[in-house]
Specification:
By secondary structure, the chain is an alpha+beta fold. Strands 1, 2, 3, 4, 5, 6, 7, 8, 9, 10, 11, 12 and 13 form a 13-stranded mixed β-sheet that branches. Strands 14, 16, 17, 19, 24, 25, 26 and 28 form an eight-stranded antiparallel β-sheet that branches. It is elongated, with a radius of gyration of 63 Å.
């Protein structure tokens, strides 16, 4: 009984779902039963099928309760259902269906039917012909495409074949050209690249015997090691350097060189401004100058600026790539000297000294002087700006009246013609006079009379701290005299004198040297020969301070006032040692060759 009620409720829900009157709760319940129960699916499909049959037959059925087909295994119950449905059909009102006669329902005659068949066949034949023609057109299109493809393929093959021939010919020609080029390169020497010229030299000897020693020889980039002599190199852009042996330099290009060790002086004209000298510890960039560079064995660099100024970059230089690391920049001006130590970027001040460098190609005499290592060397070749720490007073001129120094060239000299015209150099040496020293010069007196030529003093204060070492002309001979302080309870001062034996002539050049030994021996040399000497027990005392050339009249260290010098002086060299007779003789003899 329960199953029958369930089936009735299911049929009721299906009926209401078909006429749209089912509520949401029943719709959800029906949906769940269809999904979960296969028997419900069968009943639902049977119900739908019956409803569809009734609708097709145009039956207008109005029932209060649906006729339910039960899907059951009870055959008896199913038969009862069908019987009820059959009884209902007997008493149900008839359904009238309106019928309209259409053209398709008229019975055709034999002739019309035959005509219709013929028309159909003709239409079929036309369709077949159209399809055949379309197929023929498509075949022709395919054939034309194939012909065009074959033609293009043939053209491509022809072009490729021609290109292969051309490439083969080109490859052969290229190989021939490359072989010819290399043969030509091997058979034809490559013009060398030059960056500088050897413009002057004295006793030049290179470590590489293949490097040129003749003047005006062009120079290639690369390392050059000067073992002996002096070499002047002028770069193609105008800068000129003088190398002093031993020196190791790498010519890099027309405006740059790397100095590994040794000395050089550089003179850079305006057109070559920016010339660069690199060292292992610094880089010097010219700003319109003359300067000297000394690279020592440990890689440290000394830079002395004679004129103008340079830009000094301190740091480690990589010569392979030309790059400067850890740089510190400083502008160095004329009269200044700096030192940059190896493996350091610190720049320190040092004492300026132009005399330490050869700024012009040296004469035979200059070579002889420099061989004894002067600490000061005044050559008066140009004017005051080319000398070391000298101040000019009064009418002091530089004229081309100098002595012949063995190079057959005009030589300048310092000309003094009036009183109170003198030259003063302060703080020329740092140590005291307990050490030996020498002074060498060329002198040409205009008149032979008592006159003061040179004075060396401690300072410009009054006695007892004022000492003099003078070279004068007296009685037609050179005289060296020194004021000495004897230390005791009472201040005591005495003079020593050393005369030359040579009688002097007016307007004639004389080579004069005064040497003072540490032990107290003083000598005068004239024209290379020992011309007088004296000995002082206990040696010389005092300190270097000021050097006067033609001391002013107020200098009265010797009895009375000594008249000023009238004449010319040249090539003054100061040494921190007592020169030997051989050294003095070598200097004088160098101009006699």
């Amino acid at each position: 009984m329960k199953d029958k009620n369930n089936a009735f409720n299911l049929g009721l829900m299906i009926f209401h779902s078909l006429d749209g009157s089912i509520d949401k709760a029943d719709f959800a319940k029906l949906d769940k039963m269809i999904i979960n129960d296969p028997a419900t699916v069968d009943i639902y499909l049977e119900f739908i099928a019956i409803s569809a049959i009734l609708n097709r037959q145009g039956s207008s059925v109005s029932v209060k309760e649906p006729v339910i087909p039960f899907a059951s295994s009870d055959i008896e119950g199913q038969l009862r259902n069908w019987e009820e449905l059959a009884e209902y059909e007997k008493i149900a009102p008839s359904v009238e269906i309106e019928k309209t006669a259409g053209p398709g329902e008229r019975i055709l005659t034999e002739k019309e039917r035959e005509a219709k068949i013929q028309a159909f066949l003709a239409e079929e034949k036309a369709l077949e012909e159209q399809e055949r023609m379309l197929a023929e057109l498509e075949r022709r299109k395919i054939r034309r495409r194939e012909l065009r493809r074959r033609k293009r393929t043939q053209q491509v093959r022809t072009v490729v074949s021609k290109m292969r021939k051309v490439l083969k010919i080109g490859a052969i020609a290229a190989v021939v050209m490359v072989v010819a080029f290399y043969l030509c390169a091997l058979l034809t020497p490559v013009p060398p690249v030059f960056v500088a010229t050897l413009t002057d030299g004295i006793d030049v000897k290179w470590a590489d015997s293949q490097q040129p020693t003749e003047i005006e020889s062009p120079l290639r980039p690369g390392l050059m090691i000067l073992e002996k002599g002096y070499a002047q190199i002028t770069f193609d852009e105008g800068a000129s350097i003088i190398l002093e042996a031993p020196c190791k330099i790498d010519l890099q290009d027309a405006h740059k060189a790397f100095v590994e060790s040794g000395k050089l002086s550089a003179r850079v004209p305006l057109k070559a401004r920016g010339f660069m000298v690199n060292t292992p510890s610094a880089s010097i960039i010219d700003l319109g100058t003359e300067f000297g560079v000394h690279v020592k064995a440990d890689g440290s660099s000394d830079i002395h600026v004679f004129t103008g100024k340079v830009s000094l970059l301190a740091g480690n230089i990589d010569n392979l790539v030309g790059k400067l690391f850890y740089t510190v920049e400083q502008i160095v001006e004329a009269g200044q000297a700096k030192r940059v130590r190896a493996q350091s970027s610190k720049i320190q001040d040092i004492q300026f000294g132009r005399a330490r460098f050869v700024c012009d190609m040296p004469s035979a005499y200059e070579l002889a002087v420099r061989q004894s290592n002067p600490v000061l060397y005044w050559r008066f070749e140009q004017d005051s700006k080319y000398t070391d720490r000298i101040r000019y007073f009064g009418d002091v001129r530089i004229e081309g009246i100098g002595p012949d120094l063995g190079d057959s060239k005009p030589n300048n000299a310092l000309k003094i013609s009036q009183s109170n015209s003198y030259i003063m150099a302060e703080d020329v040496l740092e140590d005291n006079l307990h050490e030996a020293y020498s002074i060498v010069m060329w002198v040409r007196p205009d008149v032979i009379q008592e006159q003061n030529i040179l004075s060396v003093k401690e300072d410009i204060s009054d006695p007892p701290n004022d000492y003099s070492h003078l070279l004068v002309i007296e009685e037609g001979r050179f005289l060296y005299t020194a004021g000495l302080e004897q230390e005791s309870c009472d201040y005591k001062e005495e003079f020593i004198e050393c005369f030359s034996s040579t009688k002097l002539q007016a307007r004639q050049w004389y080579h004069v040297a005064v040497t003072v030994h540490r032990g107290g021996l003083a000598r005068i040399f004239v024209n290379g020969n020992t011309d007088g000497e004296t000995f002082v027990l206990g040696g010389f005392a005092g300190e270097w301070g000021i050097i006067y050339i033609n001391p002013p009249d107020e200098d009265d260290e010797i009895d009375g006032k000594v008249p000023s010098f009238r004449g010319a002086i040249d090539e003054i060299a100061v040494f921190r040692k007592a020169l030997s007779p051989d050294e003095v003789r070598r200097m004088y003899s160098s101009v006699q060759k």
